[in-house]
Design goal:
Two copies of one chain form a homodimer. Chain A contains 13 helices and twelve strands. In chain A, the strands form three sheets. In chain A, strands 2-1-3-4-5-11 form a six-stranded parallel sheet, with helices on both faces. A four-stranded parallel sheet of chain A has the order 7-6-8-9, sandwiched between helices. The N and C termini of chain A lie far apart (84 Å). Chains A and B meet through α4, α5, β2, α6 and α7 of A and α4, α5, β2, α6 and α7 of B. Chain A binds a DNA duplex (16 and 16 nucleotides) through α2 and α4.
DNA sequence: CTGTTAGCGCATTCAC
DNA sequence: GTGAATGCGCTAACAG
């Protein structure tokens, strides 16, 4: 009699032996709907418990050709909008047994490409992306992968597959119009320089369109560094804005975070908000609801974007499993300008 | 001649055939250090390109017994402290080729247990957790898995494996002492009710210890609902605090977010901060650095916690691959009380 | 530097 | 309701 070999992790065969059944029966007992008698199942579960067995899904994936997970890629975790979208996806797929693999790009399409490739190596059954801008290679990889794709937060001109989002340009344009209605006539914009943040660039575009069509003075744009957008940047930017164009009476910031930073800096300098200058943000972050003064913003239901994207990818995945393919769908999530005390 | 079967995704065998080599050579060419002649490699890469081939790591995992990823579990994505820790982990493992699978628990140990089990099914090579409190079953699963584990953000009394963190109680205690030195004598605490947020509970404990040893009036604690901690909760809480104990001259909040909410509410009510009441937070979130007034807080290097945890898990994983095992290590990350304008 | 053989742990498919 | 044979796509180990 030789000593039991020091096996690292028990396998299904170990469980089967212990329960006195075949591995196939164990496999069945582990999935719902597995046709196994109550007695056998109990013995199997007991064996699993005793052995501390954990199913190796990796092996299951190989033979069933279902990895059981989907991947989601966001620009940054440190942005509650995207964190909410990720939560929405999780909520939508929770019941289905699918898991989500989450990655982030730091707003760099090159990182996104690497990440997509890395994820594809693990054979996700679906993929949710943020934005509509990707490297050509990333796009090619996605198309070749033949899995459902959902792009979120933008309405891409040429979607890869499905899309769930809204026009950032239109939203920002609506905000400027609202400020105009409130009597503001010298409206500036504060945002990032780079086009890394395509949603930020779209918002700036919407701003420019609005001042153009309203006949307001143009070019009152202060740009700060790369994303992620920070509160500090907003503070610096508004100082530049007021220094450069002292007649500016309202500023639209690319996000609530920079709007908040701008307002805090105004407090420090004794510039009344909105008395001396009005400040609006974008995104309806918690800080905008809670700050003093509360910040006018464009609210987008980030969670809902995630939920819809999650449901869409889920349906597409279930369709694909059943051999059906779904027509590409573009879902528009409404935005809403919320006027608060800062304007 | 039959038509080529409609294969979904090309496999390594397809690449091999096209390049006129064996699959083994393709496999080698795909890893660095694979001993393959330049010419062969070029042919293989060309074939990969033409076919749009993507390696199936799932199959590789099965035969090599290396999944190539580690898992990290945080309470919430929507908290920049944890998002930073996740970033730190990513940074630490980036070069190694390991990937990170990220999950979150919504501050519920039951969800954590489910998540750990789900992740273990995919055979991570290591696991980074937040906090030291887990269900007994979760702990058992982890121990049975036989992979390196790092617990972060706390110093657990009985660590599962490695730990990277600090004493939340000691940090909060230090903050109260600092307020005492500044002359505050009626110090309150604002935090969550439930013990779901164990770090929050530890901070409250540290507060209680401090007022005890300083001989200050006790029990001035306002509790609000479940985590995640919101700014709104801080605003409500400070009103209750001032109503219930009008003599309170300083409040310690369980996080900067609630501190910020408290301060904003004070602004609204015309209570000067710190003139009428001083407010301190915890965590050194961006909002604390940027708000007006800037918020006194306890700074913890969240990113560094992640980096250290990442390096630790990386060394442990590489050790395990080489057949070595590492002695459990507990790493203390220093915290620092940062006094700012709010006290 | 390259190929062959074998097998990772499970689910599919078919048989009983 | 249960079992046996087979193969998923890749890599370890060895041979050449």
């Amino acid at each position: 009699m030789s000593a039991p070999p020091p096996r690292s992790t028990p396998t299904m065969a170990d469980v089967a032996k212990r329960a006195g059944v075949s591995t196939m029966t164990v496999s069945r007992a582990l999935r719902d709907g597995g046709m196994v008698s109550g007695d056998t199942r109990a013995r199997i579960l007991a064996a699993i418990e005793e052995l501390g067995y954990v199913l190796d899904q990796t092996a299951g994936t190989l033979s069933s050709k279902r990895s059981g997970f989907m991947a989601a890629i966001v620009p940054s975790l440190n942005n509650s909008n995207f964190a909410d979208t990720a939560r929405g996806i999780t909520e939508a797929i929770e019941e289905s047994g699918l898991q989500m693999l989450l990655g982030y790009t730091d707003y760099q399409v090159e990182k996104e490409e690497k990440l997509i490739e890395a994820m594809l190596r693990r054979r996700p059954e679906g993929l949710v992306l943020t934005g509509g801008r990707h490297t050509p290679r990333a796009r090619k990889l996605l198309e070749a992968a033949g899995i459902p794709v959902v792009e979120t937060w933008d309405i891409p001109p040429d979607p890869i597959g499905h899309a769930v989002g809204f026009s950032n340009a239109a939203a920002c344009r609506a905000l400027v119009h609202r400020l105009y209605e409130r009597g503001y006539r010298n409206i500036g914009f504060v945002g990032g320089t780079s086009n890394r943040d395509t949603r930020g660039a779209d918002r700036r575009l919407g701003y420019s369109e609005a001042v153009e069509e309203l006949g307001l003075p143009r070019g009152r744009i202060i740009s700060f560094g790369k994303p992620p957008i920070s509160m500090e940047q907003g503070g610096e930017a508004i100082v530049h804005m007021v220094t450069q164009w002292p007649d500016v009476d309202a500023v639209v910031c690319v996000s609530d975070l920079s709007a908040f930073g701008a307002i805090a800096e105004c407090h420090r300098r004794g510039w009344a908000v909105p008395g001396r200058i009005a400040v609006a943000g974008f995104g309806d972050f918690e800080v905008a609801r809670c700050a003093f003064p509360r910040i006018t913003t464009v609210a987008v239901d980030s969670l809902e974007i995630g939920r819809q994207a999650g449901e869409l990818i889920l349906r597409a995945i279930e369709g694909a499993r059943a051999g059906r393919s779904m027509p590409a769908e573009t879902m528009i999530i409404p935005f809403k300008v919320i006027e608060r005390e800062s304007t």
